[in-house]
Amino acid sequence: MKKLLALVLAALLVFSLAACSSGGDTQTADTGSTEAADTAAETATVANKDKPLVWFNRQPSNSSTGELDMNALTFNENTYYVGFDANQGAELQGTMILDYIKANIDTIDRNGDGIIGYVLAIGDIGHNDSIARTRGVRAALGTAVEADGVINSDPIGTNADGSATAVQDGTLEVDGKTYIVRELASQEMKNSAGATWDAATAGNAIGTWSASFGDQIDIVASNNDGMGMSMFNAWSQAEGVPTFGYDANADAVAAIAEGYGGTISQHADVQAYLTLRVLRNALDGVDIDTGIGTADDAGNVLSSEVYYYDEAARSYYALNVAVTADNYQDFLDSTKVYAPVGNQLDATAHPQKSVWLNIYNAADNFLSATYQPLLQNYDDLLNLKVEYIGGDGQTEANITNRLSNPSAYDAFAINMVKTDNAASYTALLSQ
């Protein structure tokens, strides 16, 4: 009898404590306190190694061979990569430059020597996207040299006489006249501290190149708009030399009206949505295609014209669009939410979850001025509380040191400094 009485009293005590813990929050939402308690419990009980993880912008891979790091991409059942189709975008950039040359063939050869000379700013020689863009320009302009079945993407330094071995002189026939196309110079834009894709370094480089080549430079090409705009502002705008970049940053798109040749939109609006959407779906325990290829309960859905999914690589890729003088006005606002996926999720069905997300380089123009503002627009729509961490662009430790308490978060979105370094993050999540 005493044992039975003790059990009854214990049950009443548990009930009383549960009622007290929910009393202060019950007026804010029908199930707000229950959801908050459930969220806290889930965050505490789900092992960090099992929480949803999205790699974005830099795909885990070998920086020398480009081989995907499948250990990182299959870290757990809720791990994915979100980026864009680098090869499709690279080909598009090369084609955009070639089309511009053909359309302006009467004026493009500034010194009339029959050689269309270009300089190329390379972002990071070990980054798959940079490699693809370098290859795309060289393939389109006929300057590519293949080795072991792939186009050489190495920087050449300077190449005034066309004798470099990493590239060759291309030929282009327009209106019955044959022109030589020559890569006059290219280098990796890496600063003394080790940061790559460095705009200031590109601005200095165009000063050196213009002093060496002068009016031999007919085209300026860049692996991204940050470096492209630095060269445009430092030299090519004043000289009337068309400059081509990549990313469709707001300042670059606006500069098309001032003579910037063009850029490539990698549909950052779609990428940012996908980065957070796959986490939302994993956290909700629904089909990963929800709100992506299949409409969600708010009507959000993407068409196959703007993305595709590679199941084997567990990777979502946005498709690219060329931005030129013909259409740049449609791309002036680079932080605008993509309308087909701009509908607010219901907080009752999709309660708030916490996400740790880093930007590898807080100074990177595309990531800080375009991608992060887009993420911040979508995190509200998807009911995600995101902590944004900005790195220095040089070391993983600058970022990983700030992931000291992964147990406080429900999911993670990671943008590495180097594509080889996924293990630096998965090791922390496996502890």
Structure write-up:
The protein has two domains: about 30-85 and about 270-315 and about 325-430, no CATH class; about 105-240, 3-Layer(aba) Sandwich (Rossmann fold). About 45% of the residues are buried. It has helices at about 1-20, 30-45, 70-75, 85-105, 105-110, 130-140, 200-215, 225-240, 250-255, 270-285, 365-380, 395-400, 420-430, and strands at about 55, 80-85, 115-120, 145, 150, 155-160, 170-175, 175-190, 215-220, 245, 265, 305-310, 315-320, 320-325, 355-360, 385-390, 410-415. With about 425 residues, it is an alpha/beta fold. Helix 4 runs parallel beside helix 6 (about 130-140), helix 7 (about 200-215) packs parallel to helix 8 and helix 10 (about 270-285) packs across helix 11 (about 365-380). It has a seven-stranded mixed sheet with strand order 12-13-2-1-17-15-16, covered by helices on one side. Strands 3, 6, 7, 8, 9 and 10 form a six-stranded mixed sheet that branches.
Instruction: Output the structural class.
Output: alpha/beta
The share of residues in extended strands comes to: 15-25%
What order do the strands of the largest sheet run in, or round the barrel if closed?
12-13-2-1-17-15-16
Q: How many strand segments? A: 17
Oligomer state equals single chain
What is the count of distinct domains? 2
Cα distance, first to last residue?
47 Å
Q: What is the helix/strand order?
A: HHEHEHHEHEEEEEHEHEHEHEEEEHEHEH
Q: Spans of 5+ residues with little confidence (pLDDT < 50)?
A: 1-37
- Percent in helix: 25-40%
The DSSP helix count reads: 13
